Amino acid sequence: MTSQLVALCFNANDPLRVANFWAGVLGWELAGDSREGVTLLPSDDTGFQIRCLPTEDKKTGPNQMHFDLTSTSLEDQQQTVARSLELGARHIDVGQLPEEGHVVLADPEGNEFCVIGPGNNFLADCGFVGALASDGSQEVGYFWSKALDWPLVWDQNEETAIRSPHGGPKITWGGPPVAPKTGRNRLHFDLAPPAHGDLQAEIDRLVSLGATRLGLDQGEDGGVLMADPDGNEFRVLTPR
């Protein structure tokens, strides 16, 4: 058995503020607030939690990945945008064109996300959280497909996407050009090995797929810090 994606983690200067924002936008519940951060539990088929973790580092540059939220109609899209703005979001310009039909926003700490217009065929069978759209190479898409044992649902022109066999959002990578990495990513994945599994065996498997071990994590969950083939950090938690 392979590791499971258990959480998407946001490094935040004010974890509770960021958590409250996403809870309001997504309709998820806050499950805990501690010195190690705030956890949100999904109320849909997303399949992983959101964890907002404390950091003193300021955000610099666009994130490597962001949410694409879906809409059932233009009115639904407008309502999602309005709700997000009321909760503390703001409009941002990342070079999007009017004809692209999506609205680009940033949460209270500048984390980008898109509210996609209705009729998007690629996300047609996905829920409200349609995709976690990522900047990344074809190689890293292949890596995550094997790491999570999720099938490739898109592989064209060096763009890739994977999706859990159980449904939920797609994770996509846009292919080249991949922006150069400057410092630690603001968002990262937490993986959990199989229950009572061998952590070292799972680390070795991920390394064989192209990951790099960065060191031991010092947080309350323990585990190992790693990086995927594009250098994006992720954690493999200690089995429980």
From TrEMBL:
Domain VOC: 4-118, 125-239
Domain of life, per lineage: Bacteria
Pfam families documented for this protein: Glyoxalase_6 (PF18029)
InterPro entries xref list: Glyas_Bleomycin-R_OHBP_Dase, Glyoxalase_6, VOC_core
Family annotation (PANTHER family): CONSERVED PROTEIN, HYPOTHETICAL FUSION PROTEIN
Record's protein name: VOC family protein
